[in-house]
Design brief:
The protein has a single domain, classed as TIM Barrel (Alpha-Beta Barrel). The protein is built from 11 helices and 10 strands. Helix 6 links the parallel strand 7 and strand 8.
C-alpha cells in the first residue's frame, strides 16, 4: 500500500472529538497540478464532520499569469482563488474568506504596483503577503519555492518592499527554517507596525544534517521562539509539523499516525509556543494538503483538541477560531462578499 494514498489514510479513521467546535482554518492551499489536484471540492470533502466556518488560502505558486510583467505574474494566483471563493456554494464554510498572496518584496518600492494589483483582483478578501524565505546551507534541505538567497530578511531592498505592507494594511506570513528565527525577530523589531504571522513553528528541521537531532535542536528553538514572542506584532500558527521536512517520518510508515500519536510527538512545540505567545496570539492551522501526506484532516484536528485539552473554552475559542478571524479580518470579507 503506497504511503500518502487515500487507501493508506483510510487505515486510521476517527470521529471528530468536538464536531461543534467553530474552526477557522487559517492556512491551506489549492492547486490544479498534474496528478496532484486539490481544489475547493477536495478541501470541503476533508473538512466534513467539522464545523469549519471559514478558511484562509496561503500562496503556493499556483495559476500564475503566463504573460505580462514578471513581477505581476503572482497576481494570477489571487485572481484564481478569488474566482473559487466567488463560486463557493457551501452553506457552512466560507472557503478562502481570506487570501494571502505572493509579491517579491526584494523589488523594494517597486513592489507597490504588485500590491495594488492583488488588491484590485480581490478587494474584499486579500489580506497579506507571504514571500517565503526558507533557506539552509545543506543541499539535503530544499529551499523555499521562491528560491530565496541567504539572509533575505536582512536585505535592504527586501526591507524596502516590506515597509510597504503596513501602509497597505497587509500582514506578512513568514515561512522559514528554525535557524532563521533570530532573523525574523530582528525584522519584527524593525517593523513594529506590521503584523507578522509565524508559519509552522518557524520550520523546525529534521532532515539532512538535522535528522535525528530534535532533542539537540529543541532548546535553541525554545529560546528563539521566546525571543520572537516578545515582539507584540507577531502571532503564531500552530501546525505544519506533519511535513516530511520536520523529520517525524510518518509519511513513510505502513499506517498513518493516530491523533494520540501526533499529539504525543508534537505537543511540546505547541505548548511552548502557546505559553510564550498566549492563546490570543495563536491559531491552529491545517497546512492542507501538504500535511495530508502524513494524516487525515480529522486526525490532525483531533490532535489539536488533545493538545488543547487543558485550556479553558475561551482560550480554545481563540486558538481554533477567534485569533485567525481577528488577524486576517475575516468578518469583513464574509460580510461584504
Amino acid at each position: 500500500m503506497a504511503p500518502n494514498s487515500e487507501q493508506w489514510l483510510q487505515q486510521v479513521i476517527e470521529e471528530p472529538i468536538n464536531a461543534d467546535r467553530r474552526i477557522c482554518d487559517p492556512h491551506h492551499h489549492l492547486w490544479d497540478r498534474q496528478q496532484n489536484r486539490y481544489l475547493s471540492e477536495a478541501l470541503l470533502a476533508d473538512v466534513v464532520g467539522h464545523n469549519v466556518v471559514s478558511t484562509v488560502f496561503i500562496e503556493c505558486m499556483t495559476e500564475y499569469r503566463e504573460d505580462g510583467p514578471e513581477q505581476l505574474k503572482p497576481v494570477g494566483e489571487t485572481e484564481f482563488v478569488q474566482s473559487i471563493a466567488d463560486a463557493n456554494t457551501s452553506k457552512t464554510t466560507a472557503v478562502c474568506a481570506g487570501i494571502v498572496g505572493m509579491a517579491d518584496l526584494s523589488l523594494g518600492d517597486a513592489a507597490r504596483p504588485v500590491l495594488d494589483a492583488h488588491l484590485d483582483a480581490s478587494p474584499n478578501r486579500f489580506r497579506g503577503i507571504r514571500h517565503a524565505t526558507g533557506w539552509d546551507a545543506s543541499d539535503a534541505v530544499w529551499n523555499s519555492h521562491t528560491n530565496p538567497p541567504t539572509r533575505l530578511m536582512e536585505d535592504a531592498k527586501f526591507r524596502e518592499g516590506f515597509a510597504c505592507l503596513s501602509e497597505y494594511g497587509l500582514t506578512f506570513d513568514a515561512w522559514l527554517y528554525h535557524p532563521q528565527i533570530p532573523e525574523l525577530t530582528n525584522l519584527a523589531q524593525a517593523f513594529p507596525n506590521t503584523t507578522i504571522i509565524l508559519d509552522h513553528f518557524g520550520g523546525p528541521l529534521g532532515i539532512g544534517p538535522y535528522a535525528g537531532k530534535q532533542g539537540e535542536i529543541f532548546p535553541t528553538w525554545r529560546k528563539d521562539i521566546a525571543n520572537l514572542a516578545a515582539c507584540p506584532n507577531v502571532v503564531a500558527k500552530l501546525g505544519g509539523l506533519a511535513m516530511p521536512v520536520n523529520g517525524f517520518g510518518w509519511h513513510k510508515q505502513p499506517k498513518p499516525p493516530t491523533s494520540a500519536e501526533l499529539a504525543e510527538a508534537t505537543s511540546a512545540y505547541y505548548l511552548h509556543t502557546i505559553e510564550q505567545f498566549g492563546p490570543e496570539r495563536c491559531m491552529f492551522e491545517s497546512n492542507f494538503p501538504v500535511d495530508r501526506q502524513s494524516c487525515s484532516y480529522t486526525v490532525l484536528w483531533n490532535s489539536f483538541e488533545r493538545i488543547a485539552s487543558s485550556f479553558s473554552e475561551a482560550e480554545k475559542d481563540l486558538m481554533f477560531h477567534d485569533t485567525a478571524t481577528r488577524v486576517y479580518r475575516l468578518e469583513e470579507s464574509t460580510s461584504s462578499s
